Amino acid sequence: MEADLLIYNIKKIYTPLGNCPLCGSDMENIEEIEDAYIAIKDGKILAAGKSPATISAKKKLTQKA
C-alpha cells in the first residue's frame, strides 16, 4: 500500500471501533491507539493504526520531538 502522506509516531489517536460508518450511540464506542500512524492518499484517510511498517509513502512526517 502506498500513501501520499504518512504521519507516524503520533502520541494518541481516537477512532470509532470497526471500519464502517457509525451513527447515534454506536459512535460512543471508541478505541484509543497510542504510538499511532495515519496514512493519507488523495486527501482521504487510507489507514490508521498502531504500526505503519507495511505502508510506504511519498512524504513522511513524525510527531515525536
Overview of the structural elements:
- With 65 residues, this protein is mainly beta.
- The protein has a single domain (2-62), classed as Urease, subunit C, domain 1.
- The chain is 0% helix and 62% strand.
- The protein has strands at 2-16, 30-41, 44-49, 56-62.
- Strands 3-2-1-4 form a four-stranded mixed β-sheet, with no helix packed on it.
- A hairpin with a 2-residue loop joins strand 2 (30-41) and strand 3 (44-49).
- It starts with a strand and ends with a strand.
- The mean pLDDT is 89.
> What's the story with the biggest beta sheet?
4 strands, mixed
Q: Name the CATH architecture.
A: Roll
Task: Give the overall average pLDDT.
Answer: 89
What assembly state would you assign to the polypeptide chains in this entry?
single chain
Low-pLDDT residue spans? none
Per DSSP E runs of 2 or more residues, the count of β-strands stands at: 4
How would you spell out the order of helices and strands?
Answer: EEEE
Estimated helix fraction? under 10%
> What gross morphology would you assign?
globular
Biggest sheet strand line-up: 3-2-1-4
Look at the structure and name the CATH superfamily. Answer: Urease, subunit C, domain 1
Residue fraction in strands: over 45%
Count of helical regions: 0
In a few lines, what is going on in this structure?
The chain is mostly beta strands and 65 residues long. The protein is 0% helix and 62% strand.
